[in-house]
Design a protein that fits this description.
Distance between the termini: 6 Å
Largest sheet: 7 strands, mixed, barrel
Helix content: 10-25%
């Protein structure tokens, strides 16, 4: 059994969405003064690998809950040839075999500490609608957003209105296309619109 960690490493130097200053480590106790080390972390919930809850984009949407935990088969689809938005036509070239789909693009090859790349590959509205029709219940993408600056956020809303989990900030550089078991455990936060998560593939 092989585990592949597909989580974004968290550090003060990591890439953040639109270069927001979202990550701050503060050393609260030091060895020199306290004979112990303790550190606090301040971080936006939409930082690194995370789950979007429906309340992120829907006024009456649910917050993060137990239904955001994922422990089942998934399919990694190779879309590294895509240069802009992933459309229905792009996805029609692949057989959708699982209800959880991870989209591997050129984004996975960006450095995890590089400045935010505003030209990242994203899931276009037609692509989202296509996956909804195929009964997908969760979609994972390999950058810090599933769409760019689309007016009214249609991709998010198409998916979240259907109860489809959005997993953002995956690292799929070393993952081959195929079927895996996905283990994705968001933090047990209450009443919020997102939760950082650790995501692993089991092969």
């Amino acid at each position: 059994m092989k585990y592949i960690d597909i989580s974004w490493p968290i550090s003060a130097a990591m890439t953040t969405y639109k270069d927001r200053k979202d990550v701050l480590f503060t050393q609260t106790k030091t060895w020199e003064s306290d004979n112990v080390r303790e550190t606090s972390l301040t971080m936006g919930l939409h930082t690194g690998t995370h789950i979007d809850a429906p309340s992120h984009m829907l006024e009456q949407g649910n917050s993060v809950g137990k239904d955001c935990i994922i422990m089942q088969s998934c399919q990694v689809i190779d879309l590294t040839s895509a240069t802009d938005g992933i459309t229905k036509d792009d996805l029609m070239q692949h057989e959708v075999k699982e209800s959880i789909i991870l989209l591997k693009t050129k984004n996975s090859f960006f450095d995890v500490t590089a400045p935010f790349n505003f030209n990242f590959v994203f899931l276009e509205q037609s692509g989202a609608a296509y996956l909804v029709k195929h009964g997908v219940r969760a979609i994972g993408v390999d950058y810090l957003g599933i769409e760019r600056n689309q007016p009214n956020h249609p991709t998010h809303k198409i998916l979240l209105e259907k109860g489809i989990t959005i997993l953002e900030g995956l690292r799929l550089e070393h993952v081959e296309p195929g079927t895996y078991k996905l283990i994705c455990l968001p933090l047990a936060l209450i009443g919020v619109d997102a939760a950082p998560a650790r995501a692993l593939l089991v092969q």
